[in-house]
Amino acid sequence: MRIATFNINNIMRRLPNLLDWLNASEPDVVCLQELKCSERDFPASPIKEAGYSAVWCGEKTWNGVAILARHREPVLTSTTLPGDPADKQARYIEAAVEGILVCCLYLPNGNPQPGPKFDYKLAWFRRLEEHARTLLEAKIPVVLCGDFNVAPTPIDIYPTTSWDNDALIHPKSRAAFVRLVDQGWTDALRQMHPNERIYTFWHYMRQRWERDAGLRLDHLLLSPPLALRLEDAGVDRSVRGLENASDHAPVWVKLRRATKQRSRQKATDATPATKASPEFAQSINLKTAVDRREAAGFCGFARSGCIRLARAAAAPGAGGH
Fold it and tell me: Has domain 2-255 been given CATH number 3.40.47.10?
């Protein structure tokens, strides 16, 4: 199973690029950021013709996130990050796909700093940390992916001092990312390429693409049950070099598909999270589930952080349809 994240930087302007990449790469799940289009203007029809169903949260001119699923229907569970009902920016969306909770996010840039935009970024990060902790406690297969607007370490940015005062590499931004990962998430790209300079974003200015002056801002973080299934991860760099390209390139992970035999084998020596997740994944397996009341229950869990529901679904004999 292949899951990708791609900051498309204006989906209407880059739609031909997106469709070409979908056709060439055929990812199973795609998380998009910076749609920069309203709800009604989202190009659902051409995306559907390409073989993908979608859920999205649009915002005219700025932001906007979407989750696409190939030959299957993503079941929407949330369009807001918990913790601030007054925050109306379209930066977060969740959907259940193939027994996995896919969380697509577009974290605030935070510039200029210091100032209210940087304060908003750090506050958003704190909300994400809290929600991510709740998801880990539920012991379910989850991927947190998107444009985090953080280059976590010095090897995640080309050698330079020109970004030293930027919010993307500010010590507080980096510390927030470290706290998030240290909860128990696996940074998939860094796990597969621990010592390489790998970039996912190249600014349009100053020939940064041509000079390979990039930053790694786009990440896929896997919960423990998914980390066990990690096979590969990479960046489709060539997409950035095409005409009319986004300033980001798609980032992807390849996961082994969950099987009952593998789940039983892993359960012997696995952590409690791993033991619980296969049954819960089966209970929300959208490939076979037709009872949308089940999806609604999962939706309720995702919004309320109700661990009890997740544990009940993961209990023996609580298999799905």
Answer: no
